[in-house]
């Protein structure tokens, strides 16, 4: 794909996000290779940086076997997190910022040391400062939330917002923590941290690998959203979304 096409598509996706307006899928028109899709993602996030947003970390997608099978893929995808996507724990989210937002229960890590890719999960843990319950708002920029693998990669893996709860010591057993996402106190999704590639630290090691492969290794201070433990749910205006993670605590936000 030509440099011009890559830039035009990146601008199209950036416009869709900033004007809260869905666009048609790109892949049927251009047959994007996966590396083109990641370059479009990079260029589209560069448009945000040019407006003053800062890079704060990355998100992992398709970390559950169920979602990989659904998409017919055998590797994770990833996207970039920027400062404007951060939502305060307990804060209010205006749904008008999004096209058709969904929310999913996750864990987040923050690093105290750089990761270079190739680390084992145990080695990756040594670089972690803290772990927290987290919620991700995903909002595909494509009409009807329909996309191919390349489409969703170009669209920053649908990433749109994230909320991080209280940070906790990561040196504890994270392998099978119960995770319950509720709306107004009604349980919506129940899962386990084991859904994240079998162990959330595997998702972290995978994040280090993909970031290094992209030439942007994870630095101290970076946040990693490690992936969803359950399917995503549509946001309901007026509701309070909460995630409770066994031993780690709660995180939530009001949908305005
Ligand atoms: O964060 C995720 O696992 C979602 C990745 C993108 C696919 C989707 O929008 O459902
Ligand atoms: Mg997610």
Topology record:
Blueprint: H1 3-18, H2 27-30, H3 34-50, E1 55-61, H4 65-71, E2 77-82, E3 86-87, E4 92-93, E5 102-111, H5 121-126, E6 128-138, H6 149-154, E7 159-164, E8 178-183, E9 186-192, H7 200-213, E10 223-228, E11 233-234, E12 240-245, E13 249-255
Parallel strand pairs: 1-10, 3-7, 4-13
Antiparallel strand pairs: 1-2, 5-6, 5-10, 5-11, 6-7, 8-9, 8-12, 12-13
Bound molecules: hexanedioic acid and magnesium ion.
Magnesium ion is lined by residues 59, 61, 104, 106, 136, 138, 227-228.
CATH superfamily (homologous) name: Fumarylacetoacetase-like, C-terminal domain
Bound molecules: hexanedioic acid, magnesium ion
Mean pLDDT: 96
Q: What order do the helices and strands follow?
A: HHHEHEEEEHEHEEEHEEEE
N-to-C terminal Cα separation, in Å? Answer: 41 Å
The shape is globular
Number of DSSP-assigned strands: 13
CATH-scheme architecture: Alpha-Beta Complex
How does this model look, in words?
This protein is an alpha+beta fold and 256 residues long. It has a single domain (3-255), classed as Fumarylacetoacetate hydrolase, domain 2 (Alpha-Beta Complex), CATH 3.90.850.10. It has helices at residues 3-18, 27-30, 34-50, 65-71, 121-126, 149-154, 200-213; strands spanning 55-61, 77-82, 86-87, 92-93, 102-111, 128-138, 159-164, 178-183, 186-192, 223-228, 233-234, 240-245, 249-255. Strands 1, 2, 3, 5, 6, 7, 10 and 11 form an eight-stranded mixed beta sheet that branches. Strands 4-13-12-8-9 form a five-stranded mixed beta sheet, with no helix packed on it. Strand 8 (178-183) and strand 9 (186-192) form a beta hairpin. 46% of the residues are buried. The mean pLDDT is 96. Residues 59, 61-62, 136, 138, 140, 152, 157-158, 227-228, 232 line the site of hexanedioic acid. Magnesium ion (MG) binds at residues 59, 61, 104, 106, 136, 138, 227-228.
